[in-house]
Structure formats: C-alpha cells, structure tokens
Request: fold
Amino acid sequence: MSSLNRKELGQSTVVYCPQGRLDGESSEGFYNSIVEGEEEAIRIRLLIINLCEIDFVSSAGLRALLKLSRWSQAEGILFAMTSLQAGVAKVFEIAAIFSSEQIFTNEDEALSALQTSNDE
Reply:
C-alpha cells in the first residue's frame, strides 16, 4: 500500500482510500493506521473502506479487512467496503468471508444502506 487517505463525510462517517496493494507487506500497517487513527478521533458511526485504488489483495490483506470489520463491530461502528476492482472482487468472491451487506458499488450506495439500517 503506497498511501492511505482519510476523509470525513459529515460528523459520523469516515472513508479511507488506500492505494496500491494490500498484501503481507502492507496489511498490518493499514489495519494499525485505521484503528489507531479512529481511537483518537471523534466517535464515528460509519467506517467505509473505498478500495477503488487497490489493484491486489492477498490473504494477508483479506485478513486485515476482516480484522477491521470485527474491530468495527466491537466498537459499534458500521463497516463497509466499496468500489472493488474486478480482480479484487474476484478474490473476495472466492474467499467468501464478507457478507454482501458489507460490499457496495460506491460510497453513496454504502451510505444510503448503512444509514437506513442504522436508523431501524
């Protein structure tokens, strides 16, 4: 992973946009950067990982995303991933470790679905 951009959407939603690869070399730093950053930030309700600039995900990358999903759940934060490139989407499909309720086409779709489910 060459960089990790963070942006806030409203007061309770954060989107992370990693770039490059999520593999054995980068996945631990990716996970730690998000968890450490959000533990110090204002409380969020929605965490979105936009994978549009990730062109490769290894098993270590999948594990980091799964750990983020579990961390989010434990913290009471809704978690979603968006904008998977075709090759990455195939890896997710084969691994079958994420529910379809966590993967969205784009950020707007994720926001709409997560905010609706959070209001219920």
Remarks:
- Strands lie at 3-9, 13-22, 46-50, 53-57, 78-82, 103-104.
- The mean pLDDT is 91.
